[in-house]
Amino acid sequence: MAEVTLEGVNKSYAGVPALVDVSLQVADGAFVVFVGPSGCGKSTLLRSIAGLEGIQSGKVFIGGQDVTDVAPSDRDVAMVFQSYALYPHMTVRQNVEFGMKVNKIPREERDRSIANAVRILQLEDY
After folding, report:
1. What is a single Pfam family found in this protein's UniProt entry (predicted)?
2. Most buried pick, 17, 47, 52, 105, via CB within 10 A?
């Protein structure tokens, strides 16, 4: 994963602020979780990083490159949505691996990434 940086990002819906002057830096390889009540801007933040939502002002950088005006398909970002995110007929490993497999990530890299995610999330027993 590349470093992700937001500088002064603002987004509103019909004049109602959703993101106000958001600046953050997520280091390459870092594991980050955004938590908060419904409507606080978590999904808007993630969708803005992925390019699925436009922003009114500010900048979004991925890997040091300004992607503020880059199409979502050209950002090399994957996003999993809360609903319908898991396939009940698959194991935890298969669910975690699914997106990487679709994107043809090499087996060795998938194995390392899955092992790390499972360890961080304490899902070894599942």
Report:
1. ABC_tran
2. 47
